[in-house]
Amino acid sequence: MARFDPYENNGGTCVAVAGDGYCVVAADTRLSVGYSILSRDQSKISELADKCVLASSGFQGDIKALQKNLAAKELVYEHNHNKKMSCPAMAQLLSNTLYYKRFFPYYTFNVLGGLDSQGKGCVFTYDAVGSYERTGYSAQGTGAKLIMPVLDNQLKSPSPLLLPAQDAVTPLSESDAVDLVKDVFASATERDIYTGDKLEIVVINSSGIHRECIELRKD
Amino acid sequence: MMKLDMSALETQFGAPAGEDGGLLFDVDGAAMPAMEFPNCPDFDRFQAKTKDMVKNKRGTTTLAFIFDKGVIVAADSRASMGGYISSQTVRKIIEINPYMLGTMAGGAADCQFWHRNLGTKCRLHELANKRRISVTGASKLLANILYSYRGMGLSIGTMIAGWDEKGPGLYYVDSEGARLKGNRFSVGSGSLYAYSVLDEGYRFKMSVEEAGELARRAIYHATFRDGASGGCVSVYHVGPDGWKKLSGDDVGELHYQYYPVQKTPVEQEMTDASTS
């Protein structure tokens, strides 16, 4: 009897870190199937709006479909409202888009990063069917379990649910955040077979979107 | 091919709710299809496989109870994906409107989406009828939606708590289609632990502080014993003027408040020796 088996995991890791006035979104560029590497140069990052960048890991077919879908919806929004979508608006759109495929999910693990309407960095982290939360930092993908504890160690701040509210710790500067991201990816590459080759880093701040590429271990 | 009831996703205006990602009305050209279903011979096995593969966020302890001064609602803040803690800062108490709260247990995406949908429907009811929706009505709206998706694999265990014209109201609604009116509920993987503490300490006549403390203690004990619960305990009170957040405490710190470290005699001697 034919089994319907449409998914595969192409591996990879995505990270985003938000700060005061900037957001760093990074992902590796390795595409794997099982123990084989199919590409060392496949981007997981999509710039959806001028202050909003999506990084997705998981099944590449669904990643491409999802990113194209969102880009198209963003364009429709621009045409209707005469402005680009803000990051929190895109966050809810992504959540709804994922949930509309609740019974045939996009096998994608997403991290959305950007600036909110006040110009502060924001990161939204998702599960495969659209549950989302705004956080200060996040990692998703095969290397996430290696990276998140390090980010927690460096960046964790008092929970926003506490009452009386406690101030978050002073966030990192933009260059420190980029260095931290490079370090965590270097470490994840050491211990995760699906992460490596190249690291794409996208920084969003008030002056726009800047890209950087650094090499990772190729083994 | 089975025909599924999509009426829950339609608003009074005919266009499916949530189309175009959050906008309610059909904006020109941007039609979004109704929920897609895979074209496969064995739907149930496919759902079971995807559920294991995708490992959606879930796990919780939530509770709510009615007492003479209103309703107390409390929850932890942990979300787990399989064995991995995906977040310790999840908002599980959802503010439907200024006088009604919903709690979230089970699948995080399911709860978030359908509560947001419920909030939209409650607002539409207010606009259409020029009066607030009752807790009975809101819980019925949600229960009917969930009943129509019964058997599809949604996982939602929620409580709708609020204050309407009839006074405090509390309903338990779940994805099996159950809708129960009651005075005391706890939902989630840690609910058994929370029930023990809650049932033992509950009295109808309590002050708001006492009731809040009972709820906080119950959730704390659940987080202590249940691996899928943890993070922060949030406690809300719903009174005649609406809801108000009473407290938000990290359970790690609550532990030492309830069970302060006892110094052993040996330690005590050593500190005395160093000061003499």
UniProtKB/TrEMBL annotation, chain A:
It holds the Pfam family Proteasome. GO terms for cellular component: cytoplasm; nucleus; proteasome core complex. SUPFAM superfamilies: N-terminal nucleophile aminohydrolases (Ntn hydrolases). Keywords: Cytoplasm, Nucleus, Proteasome. Its main location: cytoplasm. InterPro entries: Ntn_hydrolases_N, Proteasome_bsu_CS, Proteasome_sua/b, Proteasome_suB-type. Gene3D superfamilies: Glutamine Phosphoribosylpyrophosphate, subunit 1, domain 1. GO terms for biological process: proteolysis involved in protein catabolic process. It comes from the Eukaryota. Coiled coil: none annotated. Belongs to the peptidase T1B family. Component of the proteasome complex. The 26S proteasome consists of a 20S proteasome core and two 19S regulatory subunits. The 20S proteasome core is composed of 28 subunits that are arranged in four stacked rings, resulting in a barrel-shaped structure. The two end rings are each formed by seven alpha subunits, and the two central rings are each formed by seven beta subunits. The catalytic chamber with the active sites is on the inside of the barrel. Component of the proteasome, a multicatalytic proteinase complex which is characterized by its ability to cleave peptides with Arg, Phe, Tyr, Leu, and Glu adjacent to the leaving group at neutral or slightly basic pH. The proteasome has an ATP-dependent proteolytic activity. Non-catalytic component of the proteasome, a multicatalytic proteinase complex which is characterized by its ability to cleave peptides with Arg, Phe, Tyr, Leu, and Glu adjacent to the leaving group at neutral or slightly basic pH. The proteasome has an ATP-dependent proteolytic activity. This is Proteasome subunit beta. It comes from Eragrostis curvula.
UniProtKB/TrEMBL annotation, chain B:
Pfam families: Proteasome. The active site is at T60 (nucleophile). One of its GO terms (cellular component) is nucleus. GO terms for molecular function: threonine-type endopeptidase activity. The 26S proteasome consists of a 20S proteasome core and two 19S regulatory subunits. The 20S proteasome core is composed of 28 subunits that are arranged in four stacked rings, resulting in a barrel-shaped structure. The two end rings are each formed by seven alpha subunits, and the two central rings are each formed by seven beta subunits. The catalytic chamber with the active sites is on the inside of the barrel. It is found in: Cytoplasm; Nucleus. The proteasome is a multicatalytic proteinase complex which is characterized by its ability to cleave peptides with Arg, Phe, Tyr, Leu, and Glu adjacent to the leaving group at neutral or slightly basic pH. The proteasome has an ATP-dependent proteolytic activity. The keyword Iron does not apply. Belongs to the peptidase T1B family. It catalyses: Cleavage of peptide bonds with very broad specificity. Keywords: Cytoplasm, Hydrolase, Nucleus, Protease, Proteasome, Threonine protease, Zymogen. This is Proteasome subunit beta.
